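Fill in residues.
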């Protein structure tokens, strides 16, 4: 097995994550998010009804996606923007580098967005000697520490105040005992300095509005608004699943997204941009790259396509007991937690990622909290089923199971001497059994015990 196989990363990551201090930090941070949600949800008279509305709306969007996408392209183009269609990550990266070359740029600013991780934008641009400036505070610190995002909404959730301080002190002239406010102000200043004269800003999108050709961006730090306004070119990379039919639908979707992200009634800064600026501040050019990356294939799965309703609030990640134990790096995937566990094998391939099927205890906490009522636990079970029936799961495990059934069905085999049974089952099949210890055989077989007691 290659050392960098996703399954190996998962196994090694889990071993590293089993650390008391790590557990405390991650449980404290996710616990705070859960408390925020509990406080925020009292603002709803009937949260379940609102979730039902969101569920219906997202389902409707996914079923009518073809028309919504075409309408979005028409309206966004009318607004002066350009829509580019990317089949996969390579297509998207080629489109981005073409725009960068056309603008003769040597640096870009970027927002905190998982889809930019999905296409591995940062590594790609750095290999092309394009400087990448992280504008989100957590991401900026992670960039300094050469670390990746740990949580979709709070990328540096695993770092304590002291660790943040140590990273900044090591890289800049910052006092070792700086307060959180001092660190935030310092990073803001550094980002502003590093972003001067950077002509291109690349972001994701929270929603795409089909009826008006709008791009919705929601955040708390205000960096997206600031750096897209300062840039000459704004490039949006969005999955085709980001589409919603109507601007009015935001009255349901935005408050639910904010509540489930971190307990707010509304995020501090919500921007709808309809294309390049007609006058005043704002980009002269705007591109939306619509990324498929196997999403249309996913649409053809009647059950599994439900995961495409996800609005990436991160709530299921924050409540997941598996995430709380193994952390964000162990998954070895760009989308993590329950939604990543469902999505990744379907987008990236069941063969390489079916190990994720075991990263779930089926406790149902993710289903309970999901604002768009995605039955994540059912979808994980369905993924397990797919992995077994399509033979894209663990073929060795399959063989083991069949051998075991054959063995257990034979009375003669079960009555064979203990050492033989051990040899056959434990030594031959043991290595395929996985991480758990194999159960021990009783010292006497059932027939032997029966004979001794009753005959
Ligand atoms: S699956 Fe539901 S809870 Fe999880 S990120 Fe998506 S919308 Fe949020």
């Amino acid at each position: 097995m290659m050392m960098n196989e996703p399954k190996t990363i998962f196994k090694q990551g889990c071993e590293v994550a089993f650390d008391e201090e790590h557990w405390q930090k991650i449980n404290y941070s996710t616990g705070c998010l859960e408390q925020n949600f509990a406080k925020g949800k009292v603002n709803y008279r009937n949260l379940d009804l609102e979730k039902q509305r969101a569920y219906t709306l997202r389902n409707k969007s996914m079923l009518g996606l073809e028309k919504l996408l075409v309408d979005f392209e028409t309206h966004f183009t009318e607004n002066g923007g350009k829509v580019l269609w990317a089949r996969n990550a390579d297509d998207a990266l080629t489109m981005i580098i073409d725009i960068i070359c056309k603008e003769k740029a040597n640096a870009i600013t970027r927002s905190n967005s998982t889809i930019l991780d999905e296409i591995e934008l940062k590594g790609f641009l750095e290999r092309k000697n394009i400087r990448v400036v992280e504008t989100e505070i957590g991401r900026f610190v992670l960039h300094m520490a050469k670390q990746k995002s740990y949580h979709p909404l709070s990328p540096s959730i695993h770092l304590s105040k002291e660790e943040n301080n140590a990273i900044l002190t090591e890289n800049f002239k910052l006092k070792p005992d700086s307060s959180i406010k001092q660190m935030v102000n310092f990073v803001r200043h550094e980002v502003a300095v590093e972003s001067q004269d950077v002509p291109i800003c690349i972001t994701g999108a929270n929603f795409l509005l089909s009826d008006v050709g709008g791009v919705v961006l929601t955040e708390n730090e205000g960096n997206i608004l600031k750096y897209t306004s300062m840039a000459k070119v704004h490039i949006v990379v969005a999955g085709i699943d980001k589409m919603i039919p109507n601007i009015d639908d935001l009255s349901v979707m935005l408050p639910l997204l904010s509540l489930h992200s971190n307990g707010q009634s509304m995020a501090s800064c919500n921007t709808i941009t309809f294309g390049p600026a007609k006058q005043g501040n704002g980009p002269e050019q705007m591109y939306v790259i619509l990324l498929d990356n196997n999403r249309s294939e996913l649409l053809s799965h009647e059950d599994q396509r439900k995961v495409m309703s996800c609005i990436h609030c991160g709530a299921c990640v924050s409540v997941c007991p598996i995430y709380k134990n193994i952390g964000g790096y162990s998954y070895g995937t760009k989308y993590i937690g329950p939604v990543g566990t469902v999505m990744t094998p379907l987008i990236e391939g069941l063969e390489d990622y079916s190990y994720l099927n075991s990263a779930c205890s089926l406790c149902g906490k993710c289903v309970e909290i999901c604002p768009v009522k995605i039955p994540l636990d059912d979808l994980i079970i369905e993924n397990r089923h797919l992995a077994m029936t399509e033979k894209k799961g663990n073929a060795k495990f399959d063989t083991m199971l069949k051998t075991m059934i054959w063995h257990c069905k034979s009375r003669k085999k079960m009555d064979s001497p203990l050492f033989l049974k051990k040899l056959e089952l434990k030594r031959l099949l043991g290595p395929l059994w996985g991480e758990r210890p194999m159960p021990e055989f009783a010292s006497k077989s059932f027939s032997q015990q029966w004979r001794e007691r009753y005959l």
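Residues 408-454 form one domain.
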